[in-house]
Amino acid sequence: MKIAIVEDDINMRKSLEIAMGDYEKYEVHTFKNARDALKKLDDTFELIISDINMPGMDGIEFVKALGGKFEVIIITGNATLTRAIESIQLGVKDFLLKPFEIETLIAAIERTASVAKKIPKPTASTPTLSNTSFLGTSPALEKLLSRTAKAATTDASMMLLGESGVGKEVFARHIHESSARASKPFIAINMAAIPDNLIESELFGFEKGAFTDAMEAKTGQFELAEGGTLFLDEIAEMPYSLQAKLLRVLQEREIRRLGSSKNTKIDVRIITATNADLNTKIAEGKFREDLYYRLNTIPLHIPPLRERREEILSIAEAALERYCTQYAFESKSFTPNAKNALEHYNWPGNIRELISVVERSAILSDGNLIDTEDLFLEARGLGRI
């Protein structure tokens, strides 16, 4: 297995290189930063091990740049735990907290390799859990759904707040499907996943010849969502220079394609989401206060999974059933000990982390029963409640 280690700390980098040199089946290449790695990575690499807190391009930006082409294991210190949780959102299925024993890393490598071998390449018909509706219930969820029902029937702008992985896109889709716009498009855009220089053309579209590579006209997401709902996730990541244009769209209800001399009227409901503290962003001059008030007409705070524990087993069991079907496994179930572990884990990555853990346990467990050790929760070093 050809592995790339991306670590700016020379001592850590050399230690990993030496320790893994004892394992003949691994061909290890090390890089001192993400930019150097991106220049050398090719299809011969099977796994990337990356730190998060690195100068220049950090680990999260690095994972985004990889675009899902490689399996990734994140390693991090306690000071960057929050960013490790962000990695779950980008598809990273394993991360380790420093310091760790080399045996712990090797076990994570083997788990990741086993998962990669067993997961079929996605096709247009491959079912996923990304569009799953609510798989469980809790007092916190019922209270939130009650508030959501009142707001969904209006066209007011809504902002969904909460930690990464709590299911903000699921809520946004639920709002859309509960509104009079349900028969029209629902389009979701992640601001953090689009390079800054492409966001404007992605949202507003462009005319042929608007810039060098504009060989033909492109319809923007606002026009594609006509009559429906446009969900702007990670709105705090929108470049400041574009925020004024978004504010104008909200005020005038019209957009202008790049390279066009005319405006186009639009009828689109805007739902935004963020896990950032926008008040701090405003104070730092990174987010427009007037735009914030336009987007935050109806704020909805989605509680983290640790405050909705009644939902954990329902979500886990539904996800397990779905993955067994998706991968053509025989039916599997959790042991009482595994259920207890699921219910008492902190889930810092929320529902997204839970679904990721279930998928991995479904793939790596040998029999039809998934026990505590198949969950690999202790390896994450985050403990129980």
Describe this structure as you would to a colleague:
The chain is α/β, with parallel strands linked by helices and 385 residues long. It has three domains: 1-118, Response regulator (Rossmann fold, 3-Layer(aba) Sandwich), CATH 3.40.50.2300; 125-137 and 308-385, Orthogonal Bundle (Helicase, Ruva Protein, domain 3), CATH 1.10.8.60; 139-304, P-loop containing nucleotide triphosphate hydrolases (Rossmann fold, 3-Layer(aba) Sandwich), CATH 3.40.50.300. The protein has helices at residues 10-20, 34-40, 59-66, 81-89, 102-118, 139-152, 168-177, 196-204, 221-224, 240-252, 278-283, 289-295, 312-326, 336-344, 350-364, 372-375; strands at residues 2-6, 27-31, 47-51, 71-76, 94-97, 158-161, 186-190, 205-206, 218-219, 229-233, 254-255, 264-265, 269-274, 298-301, 333-334, 369-370. Strands 2-1-3-4-5 form a five-stranded parallel beta sheet, with helices on both faces. A five-stranded parallel beta sheet has the order 7-10-13-6-14. A two-stranded antiparallel sheet has the order 8-9. Helix 13 crosses helix 15 (350-364). The chain is globular. The chain starts with a strand and ends in a 10-residue tail after the last helix.
Topology readout:
Blueprint: E1 2-6, H1 10-20, E2 27-31, H2 34-40, E3 47-51, H3 59-66, E4 71-76, H4 81-89, E5 94-97, H5 102-118, H6 139-152, E6 158-161, H7 168-177, E7 186-190, H8 196-204, E8 205-206, E9 218-219, H9 221-224, E10 229-233, H10 240-252, E11 254-255, E12 264-265, E13 269-274, H11 278-283, H12 289-295, E14 298-301, H13 312-326, E15 333-334, H14 336-344, H15 350-364, E16 369-370, H16 372-375
Parallel strand pairs: 1-2, 1-3, 3-4, 4-5, 6-13, 6-14, 7-10, 10-13, 15-16
Antiparallel strand pairs: 8-9, 11-12
Helix pairs in contact: 13-15
